Amino acid sequence: MIAGDRASRPGGRTARVRSDVLAAVESELAEHGYDGLTIGAVAARSGVHRTTLYRRWKTVAGLLVDLLEAGADDSWEPADTGSLEGDLIAVNREIHAALTTRPSITQAMIAASFRTTDAADALTRFWEDRYARTALVVSRAVARGEIPSDTDAHQVLLTATAPLYHQVILLRQPMSRDQADRHARIAAASVR
Amino acid sequence: MIAGDRASRPGGRTARVRSDVLAAVESELAEHGYDGLTIGAVAARSGVHRTTLYRRWKTVAGLLVDLLEAGADDSWEPADTGSLEGDLIAVNREIHAALTTRPSITQAMIAASFRTTDAADALTRFWEDRYARTALVVSRAVARGEIPSDTDAHQVLLTATAPLYHQVILLRQPMSRDQADRHARIAAASVR
C-alpha cells in the first residue's frame, strides 16, 4: 500500500534516476530501517552520485518524502469483492501484510514521521489520499443498497483499520490475520 | 491516564527527589515536548543537581522510562458507570482528554518511543498494564450478564480506543469527543 509501482513511470533520464533512487531507498529502509538509512548507502545502491542526491533531495527526510509522494500518485484502489465486509477484509489484509513484512517499509515510514516534520507532513498527505481512495468501498456499498446513503465512510474505515495499526505500531504487539478480519467484520456490521 | 498522582507516595528524601524530578519532567515535556526535554532543564526546574540526575537516570530516555513506571503503579482503574457502553465512553473520554490537551504528555511519550528502545519498551509495558486494568469494564459487563462470558476483552477495548489513537497520533487529524463516544458505542454494540 505504501510504495507504488514505479517501473512503468514514463520519462527520460531524470525519471529513471528518480526511479532508481527511490527503489534504493525502499530497499535500504527494508533492510536497515530508518536509523540505518543514509545518503551514502542510497548512492552506493542506486549507482547515482552522492552529489546528485544532495542537490535534488537534500536529506534522508527529503528522500522519504519523495518515496511517499511517488507512492501517492500510483493507481492503487481497493479490491472490489462485491460486499462491504469482503472489501474491508481485503483492505485489512493489505495493511496486515504491509505491517507484518519484516522489515516493514510502512513501519520505517511511521518511525521517520516522529523524527522530522517533513516526513510527518508527507505521511499525513499520503494517508489522507489513501483513506480518500479507500472510501470507494463505502460508496460502492451505498450504490448496491447494502448500507444507508448517509454512512460515515471515514468512521467505517477507522473502525476496520485502526485496531490493526494501533496494535502493531503503538502497542507493539502482533495481530493475527484472523483478528484483522474480525475487525473488518465489526466495521461492516456497525453500519448495516 | 499517563501520569499517576505521585503526591501521596510515601518515603523519605529519595522518594521526594524522585517525585520532584518526575514532576519537572512532566512539566518540561508538556511545555517543550520531547525535543525540548533536557537534563539541564529538568535540573533547573526540580532544584535537583544535574550530577544526581546523571547518576540516577543517566539519560533523558531514562527519565521518561521512570515517569512511565511511576504512572503504572498508581491506583487507576476505569470508571464504573453501570453499563459496558457507559464505561467505554468514559475510557475514551479520558484518552481523548490526554491526547487533545496541548501540549500532550501522552503524545510526547509516544514520540519518544520512536526514538529510543528504552522508551518504546517502557511504553509497551505501560500500555499492557493499562489495557489489562481496563479489561475490568468487560468482566463487569460479563458479571452483570450484559455480554457473553467468552467475550474477547482486548478486541472490545481495541475497537473502542484504537480509532481515537490512530486518528490523532498516526493520521495526525483531530477527533471530536462525539466521534470518540461513537467508537465506544460501536465497540459495545459489537459484543451485545
From TrEMBL, chains A, B:
One of its GO terms (molecular function) is DNA-binding transcription factor activity. PROSITE patterns: HTH_TETR_2 (PS50977). Residues 15-75 form the HTH tetR-type domain. Residues 38-57 bind DNA. The keyword DNA-binding applies. The keyword GTP-binding does not apply. It comes from the Bacteria. It holds the Pfam family TetR_N. Keywords: DNA-binding, Transcription, Transcription regulation. PANTHER family: HTH-TYPE TRANSCRIPTIONAL REGULATOR RUTR, TETR-FAMILY TRANSCRIPTIONAL REGULATOR. This is TetR/AcrR family transcriptional regulator. It comes from Kribbella soli.
